[in-house]
Write a structure and sequence with these properties.
The chain is mainly α. The chain contains 16 helices and no strands. Helix 2 packs parallel to helix 5, helix 5 packs parallel to helix 8 and helix 8 runs parallel beside helix 10.
């Protein structure tokens, strides 16, 4: 479907008729139609105003109801919910009160799902909630759980593993207490082990470096730990990898991965 493509045209949530059509798609019992509605939200919801409009129109309630549907509906719903919640404390506040907190509890439960993509998407929703205010999840020990889930998902060789790196960065960035929890969970060892794999895709390399940059930005113990892990061998390995990518035109400088590498190494060496 066209709205499952990143090149899809942006949907206009401000038109009452278009919003009504979107909500009818989400309410439909047809899996293809609900998937289309969720895809529209994922691709087009970018601003806080659009998030607020969707929230006030009842889109969150419709999406929550899809969590009891098929695997496809569940994943589309989780991704859409994350898009509506991201960086919007007002919407997050309304979301945590939905169904007297049962909606939030349902998403917490989905972090234990058998499917790795579902666990990742549920984690992204909770990261959006936690980044808005840690008070919503303070009694659940969710930060430690999310760290462990995301570190486990790194072992996925596909897109789930790639996105887990970026999700990890979003979870720990700027939060000294969460970085300490990640340090205690041996996150640096985990990322370092993955970096020894010269066959990593550029997207995975970029994600790992972004995660390391965030993780090593506050605590000296994190930087010292990383520097103790044969960093000279690590730098040589990464240099060879980047040279290989450049020579084979897999990356055309300047590419975000280069900036990310330098940022990570700067944070580690500070």
């Amino acid at each position: 479907m066209i709205y499952q493509s990143k090149l899809a045209p942006k949907y206009d949530f401000y038109k009452e008729q278009d919003m009504g059509f979107l909500l009818s798609l989400l309410k439909s019992g047809n899996e293809n139609l609900t998937g289309l509605g969720a895809s529209i939200v994922i691709q087009s919801c970018e601003t806080s105003d659009e998030q607020n409009i969707l929230c006030c129109a009842g889109a969150l309630e419709r999406l929550i109801s899809l969590l009891d549907g098929s695997l496809s509906q569940r994943d589309f719903s989780l991704e859409s919910i994350a898009a509506i919640l991201k960086n919007n404390p007002e919407v997050v506040s309304k979301f945590v009160d939905l169904q007297n907190g049962r909606a939030l509890s349902s998403i917490i439960e989905l972090t234990k799902d058998r499917y790795s993509r579902t666990r990742l998407l549920a984690s992204l929703c909770l990261i959006c909630v936690n980044n808005s205010s840690s008070c919503y999840l303070q009694d659940t020990g969710i930060e430690t759980k999310l760290i462990n889930i995301l570190l486990e998902l790194l072992d996925d060789s596909g897109k789930v593993g790639d996105h887990a790196c970026f999700a990890f960065s979003s979870l720990v960035e700027g939060k000294e207490d969460v970085q300490k929890l990640a340090f205690e969970a041996n996150a640096i060892d985990k990322f370092n082990n993955h970096l020894q794999n010269c066959a990593l895709h550029p997207k995975r390399l970029e994600g790992i470096f972004i995660a390391l940059a965030a993780l090593c930005s506050k605590l000296e113990c994190c930087r010292s730990k990383f520097l103790s892990l044969q960093v000279c061998c690590f730098v040589e390995t990464i240099s060879k990898t980047l040279t290989f990518f450049a020579r084979n035109h897999f990356l055309i400088p300047p590419h975000p991965i280069y900036t990310t590498v330098f940022l990570a190494l700067e944070n580690i060496n500070n």
